[in-house]
Amino acid sequence: MFDTTSSAMGQIRGGKFRPLAVTTPQRAAELPDVPTLAEAGVKGADIQTWYALYVTAGTPRPVVERLAAELQAALKHPEVVARIKGLGGDIQPMSIEAFAEMNRVEFERYGKLIRDAGIKVDGS
User: Per residue of the chain (124 residues), what is the pLDDT tens digit?
Assistant: First the structure.
């Protein structure tokens, strides 16, 4: 099974799950002895879980910038840092532009995967 560290870490720490590999390009700080998929011989399967705030199109730039600044501030709060790291997360703040580019690349990556695999929506 593939799961995120944020939802599986409690089970891993409790001895219920045994992680075989992580899907990120680097080993997880909370799981330093668990190899990446690439280290385990599976190349090109890097997958990272990320979270973001979105706004509707046309939101004024000053509002977007304020939300981004508040998010960046929250991500520096010691309790937030401890909670995210405790769940196996890695905080990687991004600028608005960097996030937009990453989101575009991910959209294209998964769109290609869906097209290449011939995945279709089942309307039933």
Answer: 888 888 888 899 899 999 999 988 889 888 999 999 999 999 888 888 888 889 999 999 999 999 999 999 999 999 999 998 888 888 888 999 999 999 999 999 999 999 999 999 887 6
Is the residue at 63 inside a domain? yes
> Could you write out the three-class secondary structure of 52-118?
CCCCCCCCCHHHHHHHHHHHHHHCCCHHHHHHHHHCCCCCCCCCHHHHHHHHHHHHHHHHHHHHHHC
Residue 56 lies in a domain: yes
The number of folded domains in the chain is 1
> Is 117 part of a structural domain of the chain?
no
Instruction: Using the CB atoms, write b or e for 53-65: b if 16+ within 10 Å.
Output: eeeeeeeeeeeee
Domain of residue 34: give its range: 5-100
